Fold this sequence. Notes:
The complex is a heterodimer. Chain A is an alpha/beta fold. Chain A has eleven helices and 16 strands. In chain A, the strands form two sheets. In chain A, strands 1, 2, 3, 4, 5, 14, 15 and 16 form an eight-stranded mixed beta sheet that branches. In chain A, strands 6-7-8-9-10-11-12-13 form an eight-stranded mixed beta sheet. Chain B has helices at 3-15, 131-138, 183-190, 194-213, 216-221, 229-239, 252-264, 282-287, 313-319, 339-350, 361-366, 370-375, 422-429; strands at residues 33-40, 49-57, 60-66, 75-78, 83-86, 88-93, 141-146, 155-163, 171-181, 245-249, 270-274, 292-294, 324-326, 393-396, 407-412, 415-416. In chain B, helix 3 packs across helix 4 and helix 4 (194-213) packs across helix 6.
Amino acid sequence: MIRGVRADLLAAVSLAFAGCTANSGEVETASSKPAPEKPVKFNKDPYPSTYTGYPTRLTVVRNVTIFDGEGGRIDNGSIVLSSGKVDRIGGPGMELPTDADVVDGTGKYLTPGVIDVHSHLGDYPSPSVEAHSDGNEATSPTTPEVWSEHSVWPQDPGFGRALANGGVTTLQILPGSANLMGGRSITLKNVPARTVQGMKFPGAPYGLKMACGENPKRVYGSKGRMPSTRMGNFAVNRATWAKAVAYKKKLDEGKAVDRDLAMETLAGVLSGEILVHNHCYRADEMALVIDMSKEFGYKVSAFHHAVEAYKIADLLEKEGICAAMWADWWGFKMEAYDSVPENIPLVYKAGACTIVHSDDANQIQRLNQEAAKALAAGRRMRMQISDEQAWTWLAINPAKALGIGDRTGSLKPGKMADVVLWNGNPFSAYTRPEKVWIDGAMMYDAMDPKRRPVSDFELGQPGEGDVK
Amino acid sequence: MGPCLRRGAARAGLGGALIAALALAAPAQAQDVAITNAKLVIGDGSAPIDGGTVVVRGGKVVAAGAGVAVPAGVERVDAGGRWVTPGIVAAFSRVGLVEVDAVTGSNDRSASKSRFSAGLDIAPALNPMGSPVAVNRAAGVTRAIVAPGASGNLFAGQGAVVDLADDNDMVTKPRALQFVAFGEDGSAKAGGSRAALFLLFREQLLAARSYARNPATLAEWGNDALIQRADAEALVRVIDGTTPLFVRVDRATDILNVLKLRQEFPALKLVLVGATEGWLVARDIAAARVPVLVSPLTDLPGNFEQLGATQSNAGRLAAAGVPVSVGVFDDDDAHKMGYATQYAGNLVGLTKLPGASGLSWDQAFAAISSAPARAVGMDATVGSLRPGRVGDVVIWDNDPLELGSRPTAVWIDGKAQSLTTRQDRLRDRYATPQEGGLPKAYDR
């Protein structure tokens, strides 16, 4: 795929991300090939995914209640998983293969795997010792040149917990929020691997983590540096975007540029190939960010920690921007003071893209419960929201925000067989995952202690292999 | 609470060894009320009673169960078959001490620059009018054990048992506990190692004991004194068992060493907080008859004293006979004590998971009501609907341990409570986000 890379970033990136795997491609830059008239050429995918799914078996789950992840529901339904894909899904009359492993789902629920659009597993792993603090390159307010995948420790025990307790099959690992531009994010399959490349979701676009508000101005203000105010936040952002626009213009015109890792990331955003994930609590700041994105010609994919999204739900709907939210976190900082338990359902009711996220190694283990609390809050406002509609907050919506909605996030035939079988209604506190398949391979089985990941860090420690 | 409590507690403070007699005065507007036709949960670990009745008079429970007669003249509330329980008791919290964590002026949790430690008393820092009190009350939390965060020295200071009523005084029992962190946090405070921690702990208690025998010794020590006079007075009450000592501790070996502190100080009334690796030494904890307040869903090795973390900790401790309470969320929570019901529900869910240990529904509810009350020595007065306990009663719209359930009515000390919060007002203002004929600022 890399051989398709052209000089023009615009043309190159779409190809570079289209499922490239082991082919490392050539690295060619203005400096390595000193021909001043020749535009920069470089590998867009220098740390390619080596993930491939594990062996699968033809599998049928039948007599099960299905939420398909796009708002559909099938009672007494069946699903066929074949060669890592969803093969068929339907009601009790659907024809089933006779040579498949059959799981009876009576009394149980089947959903697409949970997708967490906001995690720091791996870059702030457990144990959270200083030596593991790899999420914030807090030495400059804009560091679009750093890539979170270079911090991710694949042995973080949190990945296994998110799988076994939370049914999480895909997750985005973001840099922290100390910086206005924190760096590139990476989307992972929640399958343990020796290397981060072994977890990378094949072909998923990169994200750029940005942050509004209190954190950047506090971190740099306390160092006597800009930004120390919200207006300083915007000034630094705008100056950086202006530089990126100029850099991209040169690229588009085929002019020679030096390699600039920061500008390459921002040019990727401006060309629409890298998706912006913007930590932003307050409604008024989100509205300002939207205008800034128009000023420089990029789009925000999702506002994360959007505690005040309910105040501008109509604007988010109009602009087509997702809001990723907690169910009920509040009061830990000033910009989280106006949180309301109805935030998530109010955003949903306005027709905006609604996502439940964690930002937390514990909460990622029960995003289904967070969604359940938000759903209940909406119903107390007499909103008509079904369970299966609410499941979109954990499935197709985060998949779309990550640019992978065409491959996972729902149980449509042909999509990745990322599937959770729950031992009851997943919106109950009494329910846990029973089985989890990723790309059709069973990666967790509550009934089989051998189908439970145990990270290197946990080997030989108290409680190794425990249910956790 | 009323003035008689204040006097009793003050006397205990002056007298040092006196146990503060718990005198719970009923608020002025306590109603006599009988809630009938309830799926009634007593909170003591017994099974729910269908068609139950609870009668509250003079702010206290006078009867609860099936076939309880409603006295003449007592207002009746028909629960319509819904769940009725005692109010949730938050086992370990900072409610009332914090409005916004990161806004330092509104956060009275810790006093890391204070020259005092064990003598600190959170009572004057509590703010019943803060919005977290109302939010937690609306989630069914009626009482809380509130502990201070770190001081500048080893002991954090004296916490309180509080109510979350909509009135001006939240102290149910001041100086109800002393808090100290062992393990990594305590070691850092003490100079950098567990050896320094255990030595500093011992030396401070011995200094307090010397002070109790001869107050002049403190003056003789002058600047070399390990503690201030107020700290000594507070620690004397820890040594003699008047004040329970809540010890934050996680590592199994640290737990064993904390239990051994009673060899030298036999009257210590220990309560373990956290106890992440408690299940590894459950039999020792049970034999010591020490209650544990767990952070029930902690299952990650957050550091090297939590390597054995598992959500089965609570279930395994309970199975070994340890009195387990469920609390401790994010270590210093002031805002989300409503998580108690969710977390208790999760422990019920674990009973269905092969290889895991959880709690039965009845045990789980007791772990967020009567068990924490017992841990702090107050189960004769709060935490259940047994006769004589405070009239803290909640009617729920559904199973209280389920995720979507909320209180529909709450009484504290027999007084009906407002369940409206600042969050409700914001929600209502923005139920439709667009402005109408006037800006949102006029919409209320």
